[in-house]
Predict the 3D structure of the following.
Amino acid sequence: MIRIKKHGILLGPTRLDFENEGVLNPATIQHGDKILLYYRAVKKGNFSTIGYCDLSGPTKVATRLDKPLLAPEYDYESKGIEDPRVVMLDGLYHLTYTAFDGANACGALAVSTDGVNYTKKGLIVAQMDFAMFKQLAETRGRLEESYTLFNMMNPRLWDKDLIFFPRRINGKIYFLHRIKPDIQVVAVNEIADLTQDFWHDYYRSFHDHILLKPKFPHEKSYVGGGCPPVETPHGWLLIYHGVYETSHGYIYSGCAALLDLNDPRKELARLPYPLIVPQKVWEIRGDVDNVCFPTGTVVQGDTLYIYYGAGDEVIAAGSVSLPELLKGLLAHHIA
């Protein structure tokens, strides 16, 4: 059984007003000899912005901003911006995050040429009532009851965990997103194609776009996006999160799957056990207990570093041999 080597807490909350309740769910990307790290910074009252630091090595913080890098500016993100992910695509840093306005929680995009100064592009998923989504999605067959069960508390459609692939595939831009309880995938020619009409058509064939569904005991409640896919000779390595419910609440673990390089809508393999599980005190006790929530990776040589939110309160780092992880995945190839 493959498990990551845990390197401990990388960042914790500070006394600064914007991050005095917690720091979590970091996005990471290599930038020359530095690693850029963007994180969800939470102030008391559960209001989130995006904080920033850079690393001089996989686990060594070099500089850290004392104010948010990105903060709410528009109505669609008025109650907070959360859970960033970042890739380099078409020569630009593409940073995605969840924008929350008090009713809608939807994927939004910001872009940058230097990784520090970002221009917001707004929401790129649809804003609509869940009832409308359900009506469209059942054009070609009924949705599984779990979709209604997980979304019945939110009359609006929550579409989160928006994560781009780090290059075009056969000329198309691909990204993952998550409407509970599954992970879905989108392919478009250009981001500008993501209009309301596009999403209506997409939902009419929604069943065709479901990529990963809960399969194993550690993810039996639901699955969601994690880190941007990592390109390997064997396929796209996807580190995602899986959740299962116990009498003491949900347990969040980091999981691994492999997708086809030329058609990432095809799942090639999946580990039948979690790669990252809550074990340390700072993972099993926090603002939310029993949480390991991976959102960023960096590859250095044969080592994959994984950065994750722990206990919804701190940021931790771990590492695993990339060849060993791929070997483990290929041992569970899906026929």
Notes: The chain has a mean pLDDT of 97. The chain has one domain: 5-330. The radius of gyration is 18 Å. Residues 169 and 263 are 8 Å apart (CA to CA).
